[in-house]
């Protein structure tokens, strides 16, 4: 099963490699990993998407907790949560296709943030499956480049992951 | 007080109460060595290879409970130390390793003797640091000692670039009294409700077994474990790392369990209905085939490290906490409880266990005209009154020592259990002897293992650490040969060395005493002679039976009840090597 693990970790050099090293050393897989400093710059927040059965996920969370730099973590999949991913797509356009790309972008509530005579850059956020659906709406040849951030997430309700 | 980085580092060690530091100098640590030269409080032990430094410091920690300290230079100094760091990591030994690094401005430029030490050691340390500012040394060292020795202990490495210890840059020094880390709060006391549930299950057990490991020794819980075990009247078995956690000569002790555990210990585990695992981690050498492990048992597991719980074997009642306080709480609850262990059930259980003991799984051919390795260990046990510190290398000799030297006290059995590091024994013995100069210290080894850190014989002379080396010389890498005999139709691929040094001459060349022993009748006199030579390191080269195997054995992929025994009843004990 797919799990989104949200981690508060000391913003130290090497902290990221401790996490990624743990996954490779113990044979766990990482589907995606995003990381950035939080409003408290001494801390980073990491969002990690992984897959595994309950035993594997239990070990992953225990092993992550055991890392000295990890301050706190939660498995977002344990409770209602929201997840979003950011995507930037560069799409080849022709005179005839430009309107269609614009319409698709509107349907998916994306934004065109750059345009040339022959291309658009579309910015879009949403659940990863929505981003997949947008991409699948075009034929392969018209997509020049796709950049995705990997999902990040937050739990619903008033409780939060903080110190 | 204003000090340079090198002096700060040494002052930190003093303030931490460090007695010995095991190391080897080099370019990146010259400032630190200059600071060491200018003081007498911290004694530096100059080894002959950095691996030796790590094993000596590690064994010093195992024997004393204090944190071992190592100092190595950058590059090869650090990489040579990696085996010893990983050894300490696998057995959760508190150790602080200080490694020099090339100066900060040239880090990343492939400078002379530069390696990414923090990167290389990351998977085999509890934590590591790269110090980037001379003002951070004291706090980092305090954190390193705190992390190494608390919670589940382990090695912590501090990498220090050369410019950070520059003698010309002086800053105020103050060693922090305490350190707080928001990301590190090891659990000490166990969950009361869980402990209560565990005690109820234990007291209603019909066929209970206590299975204890190295955590009991690291956590100083041996007294509590002994009290609880004797109060309950339950049988107890120890892992390889746990030997000495319960007195081996006591009648409730079933011996070691696992791959080379006793028949009675493994059968009891297999047939039990309740297992109390204390500071043990269900290692594959203990469990055998996981699907067949303790099929009828409810499992209670006490461990300070939550990630050890339900890692390989699903546990019914987990208790996260330090062994000692949790056992104390259990003892109180057992005392208060109206429920008592069922006498008839325990009697029947002990009867069954006695029938397994009858198999006498550790029996061997005592009439042999060739020296049997087991006989040497038994004689060693008698000559030292069972009270020596025994270090070992890795292989058959290690198992014989574990099986035939009955450890009644904790911290007496010093071996590389998790990583299985050949070369551990000799430097380990030196580390122990430095800690306890008046104690008998013996290194049980084999002719293959001893050659992996033989250079430390020179260290033993320099620091006058008169240890006794018990070399069980069977002219084979015995354990490899044994597996090849069992699983590869005796194709002894590379498990034999065509050239083996004359160890007596070698010992003499290093300034020690060498004795070669070829006959069973000479074993005891030779041991007595060696231990009578209080001031000398003695290398005893016992020429032992090449064909001998370690029994019982659970072969890979088999369960506890499926043991290979030395003999089927009625079979002669001696045999020819095919």
Automatic annotation (TrEMBL), chain A:
<protein>
    <recommendedName>
        <fullName>Acetolactate synthase small subunit</fullName>
        <ecNumber>2.2.1.6</ecNumber>
    </recommendedName>
</protein>
<keyword id="KW-0028">Amino-acid biosynthesis</keyword>
<dbReference type="GO" id="GO:1990610">
    <property type="term" value="F:acetolactate synthase regulator activity"/>
</dbReference>
<dbReference type="InterPro" id="IPR045865">
    <property type="entry name" value="ACT-like_dom_sf"/>
</dbReference>
<dbReference type="InterPro" id="IPR004789">
    <property type="entry name" value="Acetalactate_synth_ssu"/>
</dbReference>
<comment type="pathway">
    <text>Amino-acid biosynthesis; L-valine biosynthesis; L-valine from pyruvate: step 1/4.</text>
</comment>
<dbReference type="InterPro" id="IPR027271">
    <property type="entry name" value="Acetolactate_synth/TF_NikR_C"/>
</dbReference>
<dbReference type="GO" id="GO:0009097">
    <property type="term" value="P:isoleucine biosynthetic process"/>
</dbReference>
<comment type="subunit">
    <text>Dimer of large and small chains.</text>
</comment>
<dbReference type="Pfam" id="PF22629">
    <property type="entry name" value="ACT_AHAS_ss"/>
</dbReference>
<dbReference type="InterPro" id="IPR054480">
    <property type="entry name" value="AHAS_small-like_ACT"/>
</dbReference>
<comment type="similarity">
    <text>Belongs to the acetolactate synthase small subunit family.</text>
</comment>
<dbReference type="InterPro" id="IPR039557">
    <property type="entry name" value="AHAS_ACT"/>
</dbReference>
<keyword id="KW-0100">Branched-chain amino acid biosynthesis</keyword>
<dbReference type="Pfam" id="PF10369">
    <property type="entry name" value="ALS_ss_C"/>
</dbReference>
<dbReference type="GO" id="GO:0003984">
    <property type="term" value="F:acetolactate synthase activity"/>
</dbReference>
<comment type="pathway">
    <text>Amino-acid biosynthesis; L-isoleucine biosynthesis; L-isoleucine from 2-oxobutanoate: step 1/4.</text>
</comment>
<dbReference type="GO" id="GO:0005829">
    <property type="term" value="C:cytosol"/>
</dbReference>
<keyword id="KW-0808">Transferase</keyword>
<dbReference type="InterPro" id="IPR019455">
    <property type="entry name" value="Acetolactate_synth_ssu_C"/>
</dbReference>
<comment type="function">
    <text>Catalyzes the conversion of 2 pyruvate molecules into acetolactate in the first common step of the biosynthetic pathway of the branched-amino acids such as leucine, isoleucine, and valine.</text>
</comment>
<feature type="domain" description="ACT">
    <location>
        <begin position="4"/>
        <end position="78"/>
    </location>
</feature>
Automatic annotation (TrEMBL), chain B:
<keyword id="KW-0808">Transferase</keyword>
<comment type="similarity">
    <text>Belongs to the TPP enzyme family.</text>
</comment>
<dbReference type="InterPro" id="IPR012000">
    <property type="entry name" value="Thiamin_PyroP_enz_cen_dom"/>
</dbReference>
<feature type="domain" description="Thiamine pyrophosphate enzyme N-terminal TPP-binding">
    <location>
        <begin position="4"/>
        <end position="119"/>
    </location>
</feature>
<dbReference type="GO" id="GO:0009097">
    <property type="term" value="P:isoleucine biosynthetic process"/>
</dbReference>
<dbReference type="InterPro" id="IPR029035">
    <property type="entry name" value="DHS-like_NAD/FAD-binding_dom"/>
</dbReference>
<dbReference type="InterPro" id="IPR045229">
    <property type="entry name" value="TPP_enz"/>
</dbReference>
<keyword id="KW-0786">Thiamine pyrophosphate</keyword>
<keyword id="KW-0479">Metal-binding</keyword>
<dbReference type="GO" id="GO:0030976">
    <property type="term" value="F:thiamine pyrophosphate binding"/>
</dbReference>
<dbReference type="InterPro" id="IPR011766">
    <property type="entry name" value="TPP_enzyme_TPP-bd"/>
</dbReference>
<dbReference type="InterPro" id="IPR029061">
    <property type="entry name" value="THDP-binding"/>
</dbReference>
<dbReference type="InterPro" id="IPR012001">
    <property type="entry name" value="Thiamin_PyroP_enz_TPP-bd_dom"/>
</dbReference>
<comment type="pathway">
    <text>Amino-acid biosynthesis; L-valine biosynthesis; L-valine from pyruvate: step 1/4.</text>
</comment>
<dbReference type="GO" id="GO:0000287">
    <property type="term" value="F:magnesium ion binding"/>
</dbReference>
<feature type="domain" description="Thiamine pyrophosphate enzyme central">
    <location>
        <begin position="195"/>
        <end position="330"/>
    </location>
</feature>
<keyword id="KW-0028">Amino-acid biosynthesis</keyword>
<dbReference type="GO" id="GO:0050660">
    <property type="term" value="F:flavin adenine dinucleotide binding"/>
</dbReference>
<dbReference type="InterPro" id="IPR012846">
    <property type="entry name" value="Acetolactate_synth_lsu"/>
</dbReference>
<dbReference type="Pfam" id="PF02776">
    <property type="entry name" value="TPP_enzyme_N"/>
</dbReference>
<dbReference type="Pfam" id="PF00205">
    <property type="entry name" value="TPP_enzyme_M"/>
</dbReference>
<keyword id="KW-0274">FAD</keyword>
């Amino acid at each position: 099963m797919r799990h989104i693990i949200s981690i508060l970790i000391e913003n130290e050099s090497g902290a990221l490699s401790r996490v990624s090293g743990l996954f490779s050393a113990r044979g766990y897989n990482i589907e995606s990993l995003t990381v950035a400093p939080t409003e408290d710059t001494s801390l980073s927040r990491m969002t990690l998407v992984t897959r595994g059965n309950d035993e594997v996920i239990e070990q992953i969370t225990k092993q992550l907790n055991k890392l000295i730099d990890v301050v706190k973590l939660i498995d977002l999949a344990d409770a209602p949560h929201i997840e979003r991913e950011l995507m930037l797509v560069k799409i080849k356009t022709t005179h005839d296709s430009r309107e269609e790309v614009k319409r698709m972008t509107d349907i998916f509530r994306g934004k065109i943030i750059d345009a040339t005579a022959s291309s658009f850059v579309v910015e879009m956020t949403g659940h990863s499956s929505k981003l997949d659906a947008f991409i699948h709406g075009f034929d392969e040849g018209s997509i020049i480049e796709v950049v995705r951030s990997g999902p990040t997430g937050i739990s619903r309700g008033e409780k939060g992951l903080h110190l | 007080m204003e000090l340079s980085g090198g002096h700060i580092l040494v002052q930190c060690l003093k303030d931490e109460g460090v007695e010995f530091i095991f190391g080897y100098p080099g370019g990146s640590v010259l400032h630190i060595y200059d600071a060491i030269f200018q003081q007498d409080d911290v004694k530096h032990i100059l080894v002959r290879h950095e691996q030796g430094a790590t094993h000596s410091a590690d064994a010093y920690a195992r024997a004393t409970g204090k944190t071992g300290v190592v100092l190595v230079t950058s590059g090869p100094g650090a990489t040579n130390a990696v085996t010893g760091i990983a050894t300490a990591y696998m057995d959760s030994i508190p150790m602080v390793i200080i490694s020099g690094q090339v100066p900060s401005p040239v880090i990343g430029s492939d400078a002379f003797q530069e390696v990414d030490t923090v990167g290389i050691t990351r998977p085999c340390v509890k934590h590591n640091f790269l110090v980037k500012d001379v003002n951070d040394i004291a706090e980092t060292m305090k954190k390193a000692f705190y992390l190494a020795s608390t919670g589940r202990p382990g090695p912590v490495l501090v990498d220090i670039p050369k410019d950070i210890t520059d003698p010309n840059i002086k800053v105020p020094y103050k060693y922090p009294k305490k350190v707080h880390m928001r990301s590190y709060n090891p659990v000490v006391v166990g969950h009361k409700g869980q402990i209560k549930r565990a005690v109820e299950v234990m007291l209603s057990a019909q066929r209970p077994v206590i299975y204890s490991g190295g955590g009991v020794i690291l956590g100083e819980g041996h007294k509590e474990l002994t009290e609880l075990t004797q109060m309950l009247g339950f049988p107890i078995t120890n892992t390889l790392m746990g030997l000495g956690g319960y007195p081996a000569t006591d009648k409730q002790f079933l011996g070691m369990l696992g791959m080379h555990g006793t028949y009675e210990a493994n059968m009891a585990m297999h047939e039990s209905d309740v297992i109390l695992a204390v500071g043990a981690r269900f290692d594959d050498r203990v469990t055998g085939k996981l699907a067949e492990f303790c099929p009828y048992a409810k499992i209670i597991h006490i461990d300070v490290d939550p990630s050890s719980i339900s890692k390989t074997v699903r546990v019914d009642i987990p208790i996260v906490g330090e062994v000692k306080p949790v056992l104390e709480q259990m003892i109180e609850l057992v005392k208060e409880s109206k429920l008592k262990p069922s006498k008839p059930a325990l009697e029947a259980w002990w009867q069954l266990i006695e029938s397994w003991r009858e198999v006498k799984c550790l029996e061997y051919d005592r009439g042999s005209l060739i020296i049997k390795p087991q006989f040497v260990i038994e004689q060693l046990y008698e000559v030292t009154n069972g009270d020596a510190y025994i270090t070992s290398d890795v292989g058959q000799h290690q198992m014989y020592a574990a099986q035939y030297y009955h450890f009644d006290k904790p911290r007496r059995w010093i071996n590389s259990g998790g990583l299985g590091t050949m070369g551990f024994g000799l430097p380990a013995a030196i580390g122990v002897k430095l800690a306890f100069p008046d104690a008998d210290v013996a290194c049980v080894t084999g002719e293959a293992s001893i050659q992996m850190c033989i250079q430390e014989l020179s260290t033993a002379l320099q620091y006058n650490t008169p240890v006794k080396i018990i070399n069980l010389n069977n002219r084979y890498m015995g354990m490899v040969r044994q597996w090849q005999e069992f699983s590869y139709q005796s194709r002894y691929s590379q498990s034999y060395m065509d050239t083996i040094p004359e160890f007596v001459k070698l010992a003499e060349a290093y300034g020690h005493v060498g004795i070669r022993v070829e006959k069973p009748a000479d074993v005891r006199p030779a041991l007595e002679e060696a231990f009578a030579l209080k001031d000398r390191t003695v290398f005893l080269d016992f020429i032992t039976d090449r064909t001998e195997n370690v029994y019982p054995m659970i072969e890979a992929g088999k369960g506890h009840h499926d043991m290979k025994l030395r003999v089927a009843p009625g079979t002669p004990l001696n045999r020819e090597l095919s």
